Amino acid sequence: MRISALSIDGFGLFGGRFECDFPDGIALVVGDNESGKSTIVSAIGAILFGFGTESEKALFAPVLGVGPRSGSLEVVSQGKCYRFSRDFGTNRTKVELLENNGNVLFDGVARQAGRSDEKERYNRILNMVFGIESRDLFYSSIFVEQGKLPAKMDTVVRRIVSGSSSADYAVVLKNLRESCEDLTISVPWGRSASRKPRQIELLDQEIRSKRILLEESHSASTSLRELRGRLYSLEQKLKQVEQTITEKTTWEKNLEAFRAALERKTHTEENLRRCRKTKDEIERLQGQKEKLDSEIRAGYAEYLDLPETAEKDLFDLSLLDRSIVELQQRRRQCIQIRPAFRPARFAPATVAAGCLLAAFGILFFEGRAAVVAVVFGLAAATVPFLFAAVTLYLKRSAHQVKLNEIDDQLRRLMQQQEEQRKLYPALPTGDIGEILDRLRSLRRLVSEREKREEALKQHPPNEDVEAEYDRLSNDLITLNHEIKRLQEEYPRLADIERDAGIGSFLDKARTERKKAEVSLQDLMRERDDARYQLAALETREAMSEEALEEEIVESEARLARLKLHRSAYLQAVEVLEEVISEFRSSHLARIQEKAAEYLTTITGKECQVCLDEGLKPLYLEREEQRLVPEQLSQGAQDQLGFTLRLSAIDEMCGNIRLPIILDDPFVNFDEKRLDAVQKMLEKLSSLHQIILLTHDKRYCAWRPPSLVLENNVDSQ
Question: Looking at residue 316, what is its pLDDT?
Fold first, then answer.
């Protein structure tokens, strides 16, 4: 079988239409990274099997595109040419046989997920052409990517040993075991001991219970009479306890209502006191304000129109008056102490000395000496009087100057006083000090009135306070009526204290009610137990011994059938496990034989391969040497793994030899190993089509490339 042609439109890096042909033997596809090599491999799988999810499909949306559009693949299998076409948007798939003018084998929707009649028909066609109907198995069989030449064989082994394309031995074996486990918990393959009993165990328990019922049927009559009497007594007790609970619940609700009413009354009284206090405070402030207004209007009417600066001006005027008075007093004092003629203290002595000198000159001197003595004597006697006269003149002059200064100051002050008085013509006559004191008293009264007004602003309007007071009064009356009604309806409430007493009574009522509820629950459980026992005894009484014996016989027959089914399931599991082991062994021998044949073809040396049940190589015999895989070179290990994959594919697909797609798996090989790979591929190409995708130009020396990809080819 081979892939002959591929055509895709809007897939991955190929934004437009891309077509290529693949020849027999080795088809070499060369291209740089991101040129579309892996896109070609993905397109082959997408055309045959579709996409699993929308997110997976979105990965291959072309540039500036929403999603991949369509693609077709032509393959040649068993001498016939087929074309597989798929619309990736709708998953519409078409399979044509390109012979005899064309023949449509399938035209419908074939999604990767889900099951339908169309999908089953499409899977049968895939199985006919490729021998494979699973996408995962297809890729694990024919596709080898970079660095993964030795393939894992788990999927291949499962596919081979199952022996069917639509079933899996593991699923069948699992279903058989689950069916057996539905019947019983006793199975040989081991299950948890804590599993719940199954049908066999439950039926066995039912049979034992019925045998016990049969043995107890004779003593049921006596127990019934005693149990009915006990049940009647329990019903009466339950009614009494329920009535007690109802009474205690009602009493508890009344206590709660009474306490709530008292609390609301206390709260209302407190609010009423605060409201009354606020009301009294407002009335007091308003009274004080009105009194101050009245006092201001009555005693200070003439001062109300004075400006703010009046007090300062009047204070200055009072200072002027005081200064005028002081100057007037100084003037009077100055007039009273006018200077008088006062000789000096030494004047008598001087006069006496002058007179003695003059007398001495007259008596004792003559002529000029006498005249001189008399003159000097008289001069000495008149000097004090001359000094006193000069001094008096000087003092009176200074006194007059001082008096004139006082008069000038007095005139200026009186002029200023007159000018100040002209500023306040309406000011009453009188002492300026008294006027100033009254003005200050007015300012103090105005300040007191403003304080009262500010205090009134801190309170709500008097109308609102009155309304709140009336509302609280009405609420208090209503609460008193409610409390009185409760006390009249339940006289016990009148004896309960208002504070701590009602709380203790309420706690006591709750405790008693809870005790009664606990007692009720106990009685109800006891009653339910009695009812259950009574129902069981009545059932036993109603059921005759013959009926019980018939049911026991039927249950035992059913139990025998279930045990027979269990034995059949156990035998089927055992046989299936033996068949699987035998089937696997026969496949294993053929795969070992084919692997040895492939390895001999590649290496040119006689080889034998030994595998375990999982197709894992145990050892390799070559030239009378037994080598384990770890003793082989990396190239030999790659060849061994590759031949195992080919052998498993041949075993799985029968006569269909699938192509092999290699996506640069030899990227890390040196020249020597590449030469060995070339020889291996040349030999294998006679049996399988090999599509080798690579970026390495060295492969072009092997043969001319069938396709050369450039970056961004057709991607716009």
Answer: 75
Q: Which helix (H) or strand (E) holds 579?
A: helix 545-603
Provide the residue type at 313 as one letter.
Answer: D
With a threshold of 0.85, does the pTM exceed it? no
* 126 burial level (CB within 10 Å; 0-12, 13-18, 19+): buried
Segment holding 20, helix H or strand E: strand 14-21
Among 194-198, 486-490, 553-557, the least confident range? 194-198
- Tokens (6 digits) for 4: 């002959």
Neighbours of 143 (CB within 10 A): 19
d(CA 631, CA 637): 9
Q: What is the mean pLDDT of the chain?
A: 79
Which range in 322-336, 359-373, 580-594 is most confidently predicted, on average pLDDT? 322-336
Using an 8 Å Cβ cutoff, are 382 and 354 in contact? yes
Q: How far is CA 24 from CA 91, 251, 512, in A?
A: 30, 102, 99
- Give the model confidence (pLDDT) of 71-86 as tens digits: 999 999 888 999 999 9
The pLDDT tens digits of the residues spanning 407-436 come to 888 888 777 777 767 776 656 666 667 777
DSSP assignment of 279-296: HHHHHHHHHHHHHHHHHH
What torsion, rounded to 10 degrees, do the Cα atoms 193, 199, 203, 209 define?
50
Q: Phi first, then psi: what are they for 417, rounded to 5°?
A: -60, -40
Please report the pLDDT score of residue 94 as a whole number. 93
Rounded distance between C-alpha atoms, residue 338 and residue 130, angstroms = 159
Cα(316)–Cα(310) distance, integer angstroms: 10
Cα atoms in the 13 Å half-sphere on the side-chain side of 438: 19
Indicate the DSSP class of residue 632. S
Q: Give 299's contacts (C-beta < 8 A, 6+ positions apart).
A: 438
Task: Annotate 80-113 with DSSP letters as a single string.
Answer: EEEEEEEETTTTEEEEEE-STT-EEEEEEE--SS
Residues 6+ apart with CB under 8 A from 603: 622, 639
285 CB neighbour count, 10 Å cutoff: 19
Our measurement of the distance from residue 599's CA atom to the centroid of its chain's CA atoms, rounded to an integer in Å, reads: 64
Sign of CA dihedral 609, 611, 616, 620: negative
Where are the chain's structural domains?
Answer: 1-131+659-716, 221-296+462-520, 306-425
Q: Are 494 and 502 in contact (CB under 8 A)?
A: no
Q: Quick check: 40 and 693 in contact, CB under 8 A?
A: yes
What the block records as the tokens of 56 is: 């997976």
Indicate the helix (H) or strand (E) that contains 71. strand 70-77
Give the Cα separation of 671 and 578 in Å (integer): 49
Alpha-carbon distance of 239 to 232, in angstroms, equals: 11
CATH, domain range 1-131+659-716: 3.40.50.300
Helix axes 135-142, 37-49, angle to 10 degrees: 140
What DSSP character marks residue 74?
Answer: E
Structure-token pair, residue 80: 């016939």
For the record, the structure tokens of 703 come out as 């043969």
DSSP 539-578: HHHHS-HHHHHHHHHHHHHHHHHHHHHHHHHHHHHHHHHH
pLDDT tens string 585-644 = 777 788 888 888 878 877 778 888 888 776 778 888 887 788 888 888 777 777 777 778
- More confident position, 499 or 230: 230
Beta bridge partners of 693: 29, 663
Instruction: Tokens for 207, please give them.
Output: 């049979």
607-611 sheet: strands from edge to edge: 607-611, 617-622, 625-627
Rounded Cα distance between 702 and 684, Å, is 15
Q: State which amino acid sits at residue 209.
A: S
Rounded Cα distance, 251 and 509, in Å: 7
Predicted confidence (pLDDT) at residue 549 exceeds the cutoff of 70: yes
